[in-house]
Amino acid sequence: MTDQYDVVIIGAGPAGLAAGLSLVRARRRTLMIDSNRPRNAATLRSHGFITRDGVSPLELRKIGRGEFEGYPAAQFHTALALSVTATNVDEISGDLSFHESRFRVVTRGLRGEASRDVSARTVLIATGLLETLPALPSIRAWYGTNVHSCIDCDGYEKADAALALIGESDDLAERALLISQWTSDLIVFTNAVGTVTAADEAALLRRGIRVDRRPIADVVGERGAMTGVLLADGEVIAREGGFVRPGWAPAIDYLDASVLGQLERDRDGLVVVDDQGRTSIAGLYAAGDSTPPGAEQLMVAAGLGARAAAAINRDLIGPL
């Protein structure tokens, strides 16, 4: 290992980019690793990000990367993170004196870039979530255009339309309440899996929201527009668009088993952090969607990244 960094950031979404910008402005030698495979790649417009409302997520990432790379301490590496290991497992939970490198990061270069093997005093997890949609044949075709996952992000664009909420989780009633702010014509589809209690169904019905518990065959449409939800019994329920509740898991499979074994996570597998983004492992930080409560708006993720960067910079200075 010949390359040594103050910080290695894994992931160049809003959390990683915001953290990176803060750190290079603090003159911390920072390597940002990203595979250019964002979870929101299918989304055409992002919303709620101040000064950038309506911009595409890809453009937002491009702008953020350009700002990060404008500083001498910045390096950007297009690659997959293959492994993050602690260089001294016995000291993995030691004090906050980061005078020497504590982590080894190995990558596989993409788009013609060489693979790398570097060391880092600190590492920031900013890789977000892996997303699993209900197993419907055509749902990916509508995802990001007619069907979305972020209610706060895309509710306004779906106002007053006939909408579906499709999911297989136990939080569908709460999500339906949020969607009802934008439309009075909403049906919750559980695909015979998702949980809506009888009490919640009655409460939703009082608000004009119906629950359909039958299995779904597919999401259908024509001429580039969603037209309905096809049920397994052959009935098509007319819908103009809607929301889906994916399954989510943190994208941290690159962490070595010795690191994962000591990393505190919640019941959903999300990385537990303190109020500054510090994990249970000294020198390892996390920000954005991989931390509780999970998927958030871009603006929130960016704020969490900036907050973690402040903690990293202070910890690198060491004690008084």
Automatic annotation (TrEMBL):
Which residue ranges run through the membrane? 6-24
Q: Where is the FAD/NAD(P)-binding domain?
A: 5-302
| Keyword Transit peptide found | no
Record has Membrane as a keyword: yes
| Single GO term (MF) | thioredoxin-disulfide reductase (NADPH) activity
* Swiss-Prot/TrEMBL catalytic activity: [thioredoxin]-dithiol + NADP(+) = [thioredoxin]-disulfide + NADPH + H(+)
What's a Pfam family this protein contains? Pyr_redox_2
Signal peptide residue numbers? none
Q: Which UniProt keywords apply?
A: Flavoprotein, Membrane, Oxidoreductase, Transmembrane, Transmembrane helix
User: What's the protein name?
Assistant: Thioredoxin reductase
